Amino acid sequence: xxRIYLAGPDVxxxxxLKVAQEKKDICLKYGFEGIFxxxxxxxxxxxxxxxxxxxxxKSNEDxxxxxxxxxxxxxxxxxxxxxxxxxxxxxxxxxxxxxxxxYSNVAExxxxxNRKYFNLIFPKTDRDVNNMSxxxxxxxxxxxxxxxxxxxxxxxxxxENEKYTNLVGFEECIKNICG
Amino acid sequence: xxRIYLAGPDVxxxxxLKVAQEKKDICLKYGFEGIFxxxxxxxxxxxxxxxxxxxxxKSNEDxxxxxxxxxxxxxxxxxxxxxxxxxxxxxxxxxxxxxxxxYSNVAExxxxxNRKYFNLIFPKTDRDVNNMSxxxxxxxxxxxxxxxxxxxxxxxxxxENEKYTNLVGFEECIKNICG
Lengths: 179, 179
Prior knowledge:
Low-confidence stretches of chain A: none
Largest interface: A-B, 58 and 58 residues
Number of strands of chain A: 5
Shape of chain A: globular
Number of helices of chain A: 6
Oligomer: homodimer
Order of helices and strands of chain A: EHEHEHEHHEH
Largest sheet of chain A: 5 strands, parallel
Helix content of chain A: 25-40%
């Protein structure tokens, strides 16, 4: 069965295994096996925080290597862009030749989010507080992310309190892989 | 000559070619060739914004493939974490087997920055406004970033207005590659 690595900030949810199972069920419905970052059983006994972090990092890299596809949740996370761990994993998978698909539960594009986000500091400017420019390429996020995609990024508008749990866009994304 | 891809949000500076040249000069001083994301001459004539973005993305991926090392500026950018384009490139280079080094011009570690950043919303909590957890692995940034490193991340405290231009940590980073 084709294996899909489920990248995203979902691991930071109060109950990450719940969304993991929901995503795996949706994958299965379309004939795929969903692989979640926490799937490997790791032994943290006697390890320092740093050693645990490094073990998880290595485990995630190893999991990506066993997959043929990444489906990434690129919903903006703690700022105008996607989670940086997810950005790393998209790059990692892309270089290995995996097909990359993504969805976002925020409808505004990158430049709109940047303007909105940083208008809190400097209204009506297209540079931030450090006089650094915003990308303006009609894209969903940083051009390296949009450029890595094997298909159209699925955008869904969801209620604010479902931003990180609503899976309508995720399912659409999985459906699209099938053609 | 060993080629180093110079990843970072430096491309968003008011004069990116200035810092590009400074970094290339430092690389040369230690026997390396520095490669900056804007080095390829691209022809944007007649292209839409999106097409331009995709061309830059492809060009950056191609440049990384010609390098043996990435030195990434992982100074927090528009949020508590590094620039997402840089995170992508670290992942991309890592999967290709490049050696990855990084520096940051902000001294606080990841959990401290997250707490500080999100204390603006909810004081004294280790979860954000969406009840999502912070990583706490004594690391500089997301564990996928720290986990990708071939050497110690160089941390330098610099004045706020030099956060994206000070190259003391960058030079230290290049020096460390030599052993």
